[in-house]
Amino acid sequence: MATALLPKTVSAFLKNPPSLPSAHFTTKPPYFRQLDHSPCTKRPTVQTHAKKKNPWLDPFEDDVEDPYAEYGSLFTDGKQEEDPRPPDNPDNPYGFLKFPMGFTVELASLPLKIRGDVRRCCCIISGGVYENLLFFPAIQLIKDRYPGVQVDVLASERGKQTFELNKNVRWANAYDPDDEWPEPAEYTDMVGLLKSRYYDMVLSTKLAGLGHAAFLFMTTARDRVSYIYPNVNAAGAGLLLSETFTPDSTNLSEGGYNMYHQMVDWLGRPFRSVPRHLVAPLRVSISRKLKEVVAEKYRNAGAEKAKYIVIHGIESDSKASMQSRGDTDSLLPIQVWAEIAKDIRGFRPLFVIPHEKERENVEDVVVDDASIVFITTPGQLAALINDSAGVIATNTAAIQLANAREKPSIGLFCSEQKGKMFVPNAEEKKCAIVSSKTGKLKDIDLDAVKQAMQIFDLSLALV
Predict the structure, then answer these.
(1) Rounded to 5 degrees, what are φ and ψ at 298?
(2) How far apart are CA 124 and CA 152, in angstroms?
(3) Which of 3, 182, 276, 434 could form a disulfide with 270 if both were Cys (CB 3.0 to 4.6 A apart)?
(4) Is 438 within 8 Å of 414 (Cβ atoms)?
(5) Which residues of the chain, if any, have pLDDT below 50?
(6) Closest by alpha carbon to 216, among 197, 186, 237, 196?
(7) Which string of DSSP letters, residue by residue, matches 122-187?
């Protein structure tokens, strides 16, 4: 009955099989053998708890390393070595052909791929000053894990200012990855710029969908690593990425100080003879020129080195407030700050304003012996904190900079959970956490803040 429904040409072919040699049917073709489900051909099941590789890249890869694979010591064992190539001569009248560091033309970068060497790395960081500042430990981890690597950064205009505090970054370009509708000219220009730098690895902290994954794919980097949306918006992104991380929520900043823990864990993973790398604490570097500029500012305001307390987190609509995206309730009215400043003993309160329009409001409320300084960049704020006796701040970049420079500090948070999340191990960092009991920062207990000020007296005694 089934043969009657087939076309005549097909039925005729099925009725006359003897025209083919019988030898063709004695052995099973190779593409039929893998469909054989006999017990002798079943592969042993291997249980592993490690994260599986991206199934879009190789659907037949079961993430089990071949036990019979042999690796030599030339390209696979140990860390990469810093490139011994001498620097290019810019005075050469004939010019020079600039290849990426570690790129051997004869081998066409095959050994680099086998061992996973990274000579050039680009970090695309989403967010403002706070988010870029918390990415510093990851950059230090990249420098430790891949000796001789050149690290570049792509960040927003506000975020780019943070990298005057980081000596590990070669170039920082201003490009907002969070802009949903970028200018076509800027978009294509940035793709061409990244492609022409021949990156081995591109890291992105922006939650990627198909659009951002395509942007990373067009850089032609060997390793394209990014966070992706934890929902349906991530559909198709894994096809264009080498490694993906799925956060718990769509706001990565809600993870606090360890918001990049998935990416950091992947960067520091052990690899053959290279052990696991632990992430270093947050540290910043301040240039001498920056210190001199800031010293002139606070001297003109009437403050002296190591004899003032920095107060940061005044309520304002300025973008220079340096808040975290994971904590929107992190600014206090000037009236509350004035009450806190009255209880400071032995030091001069120094108010940091993010905009000049706030100066008049502060002068009307605060006490006469207080100083006011206009600071908008994280570099100047870090230099100001470095010369201070301590910091009283809400959940802004000031509290992280105080920990980075190992200054005693008091952090004011809207809840106890936020305090533990953004300042873990506070006692080791000489940071006193004061949280509101109502869940609103404006209701913070001023008596608890006054009691926490003993941390400044203790640090003065130790000096």
Answers:
(1) -75, -20
(2) 9
(3) 276
(4) no
(5) 1-48, 106, 108, 460-463
(6) 237
(7) EEE--SSHHHHHTTHHHHHHHHHHSTT-EEEEEE-HHHHGGGGG-TTEEEEEE--TT-SS--HHHH
Which pTM was predicted?
0.79
In which element (H, E) is residue 380 found?
helix 378-386
Q: What is the pLDDT of residue 101?
A: 53
- Taking only the tens place, the pLDDT of each residue in 232-269 is 999 999 999 999 999 999 999 999 999 999 999 999 99
Q: CB count, 10 Å around CB of 300?
A: 10
Q: pLDDT digit string (tens) for 350-388?
A: 999 999 999 998 988 886 778 999 999 999 999 999 999
Cβ-based burial of 327 (10 A; exposed 0-12, middle 13-18, buried ≥19): buried
Following DSSP, what letter does each residue of 387-455 receive, concatenated?
A: TSSEEEEESBHHHHHHHHTT--EEEEESSHHHHHHHSSSTTTTTEEEEE-SSS-GGG--HHHHHHHTHH
Q: Which residue is listed with tokens 């109502």?
A: 438
Encoded amino acid at 52, one letter: K
- Cβ(430)–Cβ(459) below 8 Å: yes
Contacts of 309 (CB under 8 A, 6+ apart): 344, 347, 348, 349, 350, 388, 389, 390, 391, 392, 456
